[in-house]
Amino acid sequence: MEYFAAQNLKESWGKKPCDHPVIEKEYYNGAFLINFVCTQCGKEFTIAQKLEMEETSKSVISSNK
């Protein structure tokens, strides 16, 4: 998702809760910015935060089996 699109999305989303269903790489003029962004609310995540979220979701899925 392009940086400015993410910023606009974040402003329009406001402070509503979000479960961040889809997280994509964030770009500026075609260059990857190292961050990731939620396509629903525009919240930015570092690589470490994204990896932690993935690990947490894997743990939840495996504990539900």
Question: Can you give a write-up of this model?
Answer:
There is one protein chain. By secondary structure, this protein is of the alpha+beta class. The chain has one domain. The protein has two helices and three strands. A three-stranded antiparallel beta sheet has the order 1-2-3. The longest helix has 17 residues. It starts with a helix and ends with a helix. The model has no long low-confidence stretch (mean pLDDT 90).
Name the helix and strand elements from N-terminus to C-terminus, one letter apiece: HEEEH
Number of helices: 2
Q: Strand order, main sheet: write it out.
A: 1-2-3
Number of strands: 3
- Provide the structure class: alpha+beta
Estimated share of beta-strand residues? 15-25%
Considering DSSP H and I runs of 4 or more, what fraction of the residues is helical?
40-55%
Q: In terms of per-residue confidence, which ranges show pLDDT below 50 for 5 or more consecutive residues?
A: none
The chain-level mean pLDDT equals 90
Give the tags.
about 60 residues; alpha+beta; 3-stranded antiparallel sheet; 2 helices; 3 strands; about 45% helix
List the helices and strands and how they pair.
Elements: H1 3-13, E1 23-28, E2 31-38, E3 44-45, H2 47-63
Antiparallel strand pairs: 1-2, 2-3
How do you describe this structure in short?
With 65 residues, the protein is an alpha+beta fold.
